[in-house]
Amino acid sequence: xxxxxxxxxxxxxxxxxxxxxxxxxxxxxxxxxxxxxxxxxxxxxxxxxxxxxxxxxxxxxxxxxxxxxxxxxxxxxxxxxxxxxxxxxxxxxxxxxxxxxxxxxxxxxxxxxxxxxxxxxxxxxxxxxxxxxxxxxxxxxxxxxxxxxxxxxxxxxxxxxxxxxxxxxxxxxxxxxxxxxxxxxxxxxxxxxxxxxxxxxxxxxxxxxxxxxxxxxxxxxxxxxxxxxxxxxxxxxxxxxxxxxxxxxxxxxxxxxxxxxxxxxxxxxxxxxxxxxxxxxxxxxxxxxxxxxxxxxxxxxxxxxxxxxxxxxxxxxxxxxxxxxxxxxxxxxxxxxxxxxxxxxxxxxxxxxxxxxxxxxxxxxxxxxxxxxxxxxxxxxxxxxxxxxxxxxxxxxxxxxxxxxxxxxxxxxxxxxxxxxxxxxxxxxxxxxxxxxxxxxxxxxxxxxxxxxxxxxxxxxxxxxxxxxxxxxxxxxxxxxxxxxxxxxxxxxxxxxxxxxxxxxxxxxxxxxxxxxxxxxxxxxxxxxxxxxxxxxxxxxxxxxxxxxxxxxxxxxxxxxxxxxxxxxxxxxxxxxxxxxxxxxxxxxxxxxxxxxxxxxxxxxxxxxxxxxxxxxxxxxxxxxxxxxxxxxxxxxxxxxxxxxxxxxxxxxxxxxxxxxxxxxxxxxxxxxxxxxxxxxxxxxxxxxxxxxxxxxxxxxxxxxxxxxxxxxxxxxxxxxxxxxxxxxxxxxxxxxxxxxxxxxxxxxxxxxxxxxxxxxxxxxxxxxxxxxxxxxxxxxxxxxxxxxxxxxxxxxxxxxxxxxxxxxxxxxxxxxxxxxxxxxxxxxxxxxxxxx
Length: 837
Known about the structure:
Layout: E1 27-29, E2 35-39, E3 47-49, E4 62-64, E5 69-72, E6 86-88, E7 93-96, E8 116-118, E9 123-127, E10 141-143, E11 148-151, E12 165-167, E13 172-176, E14 189-191, E15 196-198, E16 212-214, E17 223-224, E18 237-239, E19 245-247, E20 261-263, E21 268-274, E22 285-287, E23 292-297, E24 306-307, E25 315-316, E26 343-344, E27 350-351, E28 354-360, H1 373-387, E29 392-402, E30 408-416, H2 424-435, E31 499-500, H3 503-509, E32 518-522, E33 525-531, E34 537-543, H4 551-561, E35 572-576, E36 583-587, H5 594-599, H6 608-627, E37 633-634, E38 643-645, E39 651-653, E40 660-661, E41 663-664, E42 668-669, E43 673-674, H7 686-691, E44 693-694, H8 696-712, E45 717-718, E46 721-722, H9 723-730, H10 757-767, H11 778-791
Parallel strand pairs: 2-4, 3-5, 4-6, 5-7, 6-8, 7-9, 8-10, 9-11, 10-12, 11-13, 12-14, 13-15, 14-16, 16-18, 17-19, 18-20, 19-21, 20-22, 21-23, 31-35
Antiparallel strand pairs: 1-2, 22-25, 24-25, 26-27, 28-30, 29-30, 32-33, 33-34, 34-36, 35-36, 37-40, 38-39, 41-42, 43-44, 45-46
Helix pairs in contact: 6-8, 6-11, 8-10, 10-11
EC number: 2.7.11.1
Subcellular location: Membrane
Region (Disordered): 1-21, 298-317, 796-824
């Protein structure tokens, strides 16, 4: 493999044609001049496809290409690296399926000697092939988190008896979890959260060393609390939020000897919670918010207190996601002052430390306040440095915290011995130890990333490998395709799972943007239907040629939608910023907007029960944004045109052009954002308009208006009349239908019984209270609508319809829901926003 095969600039130290003859940084060779290790991690600007010729490096044992900008598929030729021990391709923009061997091509299933598959934080798609795993493999870590993988987990995974850590969280997996998963008796960490798994909850009896378990946010069958959890004596963390658990929480679960955290939020657990067996010195968190717990029993000597209303939730000693831990001084007094940029070491010596961040991808302990686990890591690090006779005086760890990927981040400082700074040789040696994985942390910490290359503050020396210099930030690996940060679109979007399309690709998928595929328009430009090579339909929102209108909204929608995955939120598949074009690529939602159905333009009739289902779907999508997205997201433009209906009339929240994350770069999560008022007249929260302080309750107000729109079929402001005021004035709770006969949409059918209408109206009016503090949270709104559906004899978790065809008007030839009249798919380029004068 030649260095010219890398698309962008390679490290400046790569001189000559022989990597072994001139000691290229990041490259290790054997005595016979064969490449054995390649570490190009954290070269963020190194992009383009991984060369297929990498499969020619037959002696390679370690390949670290993580945390770069690589695009395209994983080369199948990597399967030829039969000596490979370590494969880390995480945190790139890799797409396509997981390659497995065929009669003519190699694949990852051939890597039977490899211990580590680290492929998380990419955009890999397709199913996980059953051929990928076999009993011949010696894998320890399978880390596929935060991709776009679909289908089920293959049962062949259970054949890999050596597995210790499994991460499939944050994908689009579904189906039944294999029942033979409990054959993996060496697994310590199992992450299955944030997927679409269905069927019975997997029985993990026999996984005796399982420590960290997270199966949250799936669609398992409703079930009593699993008895087998109490048999897993090594458990430190149980996280089963939103897994359809019912009934009582058994007392013996709290007697597990190592248990530190139990999170069972948003289930249907009930009865008395007896935590008398819990050891308050070990168990630090019990979170049962949003259940039906009626009472709590604790030991009298337990010092922690439960908070909140027992009937709705129970949270005991809820900790922050971070810890104040910092290495203490070792029986010495720190110097009264050090030179500028110097820091006092744990041994009380002023020095310039080698600083970086250790990132652990699957720690087996949840309690970041643990006073013993971090000192053990310090001792472990020092032992490694000492055994290699490196010039290290001491190490310091601080600020342990969980990041958005549920990784453990630890700030690390390494202090020099014998002088106040490391020379280049010392820095290179330390960087090599940490980046080539010769250092192994204690088992509790699990696999870790190669640390980012930072520097000694006074020397600006590289830690390990130099960063690659590029003339510009090449965001896509396509010729001439990059994000232009000098225009009104702002800086480079931070993606969490969306793909970058080229102009040529989209031109092909739309038949050169033909008129036949023109399915909508707005003030921003047009919407085209496209067909991917897989046959999947997509909706392409294309801005007017050369126009940068809405550029900031364009970037915001990319960043926010690429990291949210929920069946009631429209899926962003990718974007294009190529040849002066600005396009967003979404899943194709065939039945247009809620407004189209209410106005009759789409030809779809919504009766009362169907409207309740639409309200529930939209509420669930919005609750996900408020309560499960990290950081939480305020939509800021909830309205009927931004709620789309799929082929089964399931509601999907769309248009994130005005959305705001509830996070501040300095303060972390915040309660409100002070911002210029934007939104749509009629849906706008009056409190937000008056104070310019945006909160989640602003979305709740807008959703309340949508609920009234569903009830009346009227626009929020029609002929000078405001729907909220009209309902409030006409309401009379002592009369039939609350005296709202004149306002209820006649197409619902007043001759039928509108079961739950009174509760529905009460809920809507709570949502539009003048004060945000008086409005319910979206999670509570979801529960109330679910209760109304049950009153109406409907299953809240059933699909809306087998097909939308049965809901269309009798006349055939109803207009395409994406047509110019019927559907405004304006998305990131809003044209009807309120701008204060």
